[in-house]
Amino acid sequence: MSNFEIVAREDFSDVTYLLEVRHPLMAKAARPGQFVIVMSHPHGERIPLTIADFDRAKGTITLVIQAVGKTTKEMQQSCVVGSSLYGVTGPMGIPSHIGKVKKVACVGGGLGVAPIFPHARAFKDNGAYVIGIVGFRTKELMFWEDKFRACCDQFIVCTDDGSAGIKGNVTAGIKKALRDHPDIDEFVAIGPPIMMKGCAEATRAHKIKTMVSLNPLMVDGTGMCGGCRVKIGGEVKFACVDGPDFDGHQVDFDDLMTRLRRFTEQERTAVERWSENCRMTNPLQTLKTRIPATTEEAEFPDPFDEVRGG
Ligand SMILES: Cc1cc2nc3c(=O)[nH]c(=O)nc-3n(C[C@H](O)[C@H](O)[C@H](O)COP(=O)(O)OP(=O)(O)OC[C@H]3O[C@@H](n4cnc5c(N)ncnc54)[C@H](O)[C@@H]3O)c2cc1C
Ligand code: FES
Q1: Could you report the per-residue pLDDT of 1-53, keeping only the tens digit for each?
Q2: How far is CA 197 from CA 159, 228, 252, in A?
C-alpha cells in the first residue's frame, strides 16, 4: 500500500470532487496557501493542487479538484476510496502570511472557495473578525457552507442566478462587506484570475491590502523551468517559489490570463486521445466529456472556474 491512500471522497457536482488523502507528514507541515504536486499514477502528469484542508490529528490532507482536462478527468474516474495517489510532493510555495489583523475578508470564487478555507480558519484562530465571501454560479454548486460558518463572523454568499444569497458575483459581496465594514484591514482572494482581478480593482480605491493566489501553468514547481512566471509590479516572479500569494494591486492579470491559454490546442488533443482510449477500453462507457469541435470552442475554462454544466 502506498502512503498516499485516498481515505474519503465526496463529489460536489459532475465536475468537482474532493479527495482526502492519508499523508501524516504533509498534514503536519502544511500551512494555508501551500500546494502539492500530485502524480496519480507512475506515467501520470504532475499537476499542482492547493491543500484545501489538513487534519494533523488524522494525518490527512484534502484536495478539491475540478475535472477540466485529461489528468483531472482521469483522476475523477480512477481516484476512489481505497486507491492511492502515486506521488504527492510538497508542501510547496510560501505559506500565506496570516498577520495579526483585526478584520479580514476571505473571498473565494468557484473552486477558489476550497483553498480560501484554511485562510479563514487561520485568521479566526489568530483572533481576527473574519468575513467570508463566497461565490458560485448557482446554489446547487455550493459546498462547505458549514465549515465556513463555523469560522466566519459574517458569511456572505453570492450566486450568479440569485438562487442563494446576493444575486451577482463576489464583487457584489465585496461591495457589501466594504459598506458594512469600513475598517477591513486586509482582503485575501482566491479564484479565477478574472475574479481576483475584480476583487483587486474593488479594493484599490480603498487602499486595502489585497492578497491573491496565482495559478499559472507549473511544470517542475521548483523555480527551475520558468513556466510559472508572472508579472508583479513590472517584475518577473515565479509563482511556485516566490508565491503563489502576491499583492493583487501589483499583479498583471491580463498577462496571466494570456499565458494560461498558451496550450489550449495541446490540452484539447490530450483530452481527445484520452477519451478515445476510454471508449476503446470500455465501449459501454458513456463519457461525460464532450470533445469540443474547434480550437476556439476548446478554450477550456480556468481550472478555478465552475466548468460548463457543472
Ligand atoms: C498553485 C496551483 C494550485 C492549483 N490548485 C488547484 C486545485 O486546488 N484544484 C484544481 O482543480 N486545480 C488546481 N490548480 C489547477 C490544476 O493544476 C490544473 O487544473 C491541472 O493541472 C489541469 O490538468 P489537466 O490535465 O486536467 O487539464 P489540461 O487540459 O492540461 O489543462 C486545463 C487547464 O488547466 C491549467 N493547467 C494545465 N496544466 C497545468 C499545470 N501543469 N499547472 C497549472 N495549471 C495547469 C490550464 O489553465 C489549462 O488551460 C492549481 C494550479 C496551480 C498553479
Ligand atoms: S513551475 Fe517551473 S519555475 Fe515555477
Answers
A1: 457 999 999 999 999 999 999 999 999 999 989 999 999 999 889 999 999 99
A2: 18, 18, 9
- Supply the CATH classification number for the domain 6-92: 2.40.30.10
Rounded to an integer, what distance in angstroms lies between the CA atom of residue 245 and that of residue 234? Answer: 16
- Which among 169, 168, 152 has a CA at the least distance from the CA of 116? 152
Tell me, yes or no, if the two domains 6-92 and 103-259 fold the same way: no
Distance CA 204, CA 75 (A): 39
Which of 267, 288, 295, 307 has the most ligand 1 atoms within 8 A of CB, as the residue to mutate?
267
Determine if the pTM surpasses 0.90: no
Examine the pLDDT at 229 and tell me if it is beyond 50.
yes
Domain boundaries, the chain: 6-92, 103-259
Summarize pLDDT for 252-304 with one digit per residue, the tens: 999 999 887 776 777 667 767 767 777 666 655 444 444 444 434 444 344 45
Give residue 89 CA to ligand 1 midpoint distance, Å: 15
CA of 86 relative to ligand 2 center, distance in Å: 21
Fold of the domain spanning 103-259: Rossmann fold (3.40.50)
C-alpha grid cell, residue 76? 475523477
The alpha helices in 113-229, defined as continuous H runs, are 113-125, 145-151, 170-180, 193-204
Residue 164 Cα to ligand 1 middle (Å): 28
